Amino acid sequence: MNIFVFGSSLTSSYWNGAATYYRGLYKNLDALGYQVTFAEPDIYQRQQNRDAGKIDYAEVVVYQTPAEIPQLMRRACASDIVIKHSGVGADDEFLESEVLKCRSRRTRVAFWDVDAPATLARVETRGNDPFRSLIPEYDFIFAYGGGPAVVEHYLRHGARNCHPIYNGLDPETHHPVASDPSVECDLAFVGHRLPDREKRVEDFFCKAARLAPKMKFVLGGEGWRDSNLPPNVRWIGHVGSRDHNRINCSARMVLNINRESMAKVGFSPPTRVFEAAGAGACLITDAWTGVEEFFAPGKEILVASSAEQVVSYLRRFSRISSIEIGAAMRKRALRDHTYRLRALEFQKIVEEDFLRNRTRGAEIRPTNLVRTGT
Question: Which of 142, 77, 124, 86 is nearest to 346 (CA)?
Fold first, then answer.
């Protein structure tokens, strides 16, 4: 089965938090026998900051936008499944409608949301947002997080279905490595500076550093250069995906801070949670609904509702205790949360749909869009 994907970037994690998610999913879909073509626009200097290494599980097409979109659409329409991810970063609204022209008896079209809170907020606050009327036209809606709340919202907007496919662990990519003395610290956090994350980073990470001035803190990610950081916080800039294991294995504890929108909707563990799990790191996360569905609080993960609680964990748990918690988290992730399991979820959903429609001999419901010629 052939899949044609429009996404932000498979080759680079530079200003691209979905990179680990894409790589884990499409690598494992390839292992299941799918042929994947991933189209990504040449924007935001990502091609100058590639960090994926060799990609042999997908054909990557780097395109100039919008000039090369028409020829990509001709290729897409010849595939079995066309996937438009949210947050491509260029011509998103155009692509949201354009991919639907590929729908036919042969070709299914999916919208795969990697930031459902942002997408739904856009739809619900902009009454004339064109995507609202397109939601019912997609054969599948997938979301990388959000749980029941996101499913309910999409169904309310007329979606035929909505399937959460959560972040996961690729144990070949994220695993324990030797500690690096140059970045050893008590607590590390890696995340880009974004509007709905900045205050939470101040509340959970920077405040914790001020409450524990004798401890060492490491901050990674773009955008923090001009921040008023405490003196015991060391900013190390962009951390490419190749360096995530090194950072996670060099910190006594690792912090996860969800963006505010993700924390509110819940059921949205970001990639850094599973990257830390793969490395066997002891992870402290900010509190969000549904965390216990993924890891057991107090045994496999530590949940904090304030900077004071973050510091309490740092002072209460010895290095040995931290290692035990990290090992328990890694064991759970390997059992329940690998990208292979996520890919199998996708396969089950898609193949059941193809079988059901083939058995019924069902025609694809015509849309009000004109099909692109192939």
Answer: 142
**Ordered DSSP codes for 62-75:** EE-TTTTHHHHHHH
Tell me the residue type at 179.
S
Nearest to 276 by CA among 290, 262, 294, 256: 256
Please give the model's pTM, rounded to 2 decimal places. 0.92
Give residue-wise pLDDT tens across range 337-348: 999 999 999 999
**Domains of the chain in sequence order:** 2-168+339-360 (3.40.50.2000), 181-336 (3.40.50.2000)
Q: What is the pLDDT of residues 249-298, one digit of tens each?
A: 999 999 999 988 889 899 999 999 999 999 999 999 999 999 999 999 99
- Answer for the pair 372, 111: CB distance below 8 angstroms, yes or no: no
Alpha carbons 271 and 144: distance in angstroms, whole number: 10
Q: What was the pLDDT predicted at 368?
A: 40
Question: Please, what sign has the CA dihedral across residues 52, 54, 58, 63?
Answer: positive
DSSP β-bridge partners for residue 283: 254
| CB-CB contact of 286 with 304 (8 Å) | yes
Q: Is the peptide bond before 66 cis (omega within 30 degrees of 0)?
A: yes
- Report the DSSP beta bridge partners of residue 217: 187, 233
Q: What Å distances lie between residue 45 and 138, 216, 224, 351, CA to CA?
A: 31, 32, 18, 37
Amino acid occupying residue 104? S
Q: What three-state secondary structure class fits 252?
A: strand
DSSP code of 298?
T
What span, in angstroms and rounded, lies between the C-alpha atoms of 38 and 119? Answer: 21
Distance separating alpha carbons of residues 239 and 139, to the nearest angstrom: 37
- Residues of the chain scoring pLDDT < 50: 363-374
**Nearest C-alpha neighbor of 325 from the set 365, 360, 285, 286:** 285
Residues 6+ apart with CB under 8 A from 117: 146, 150, 259, 261, 262, 264, 265, 268
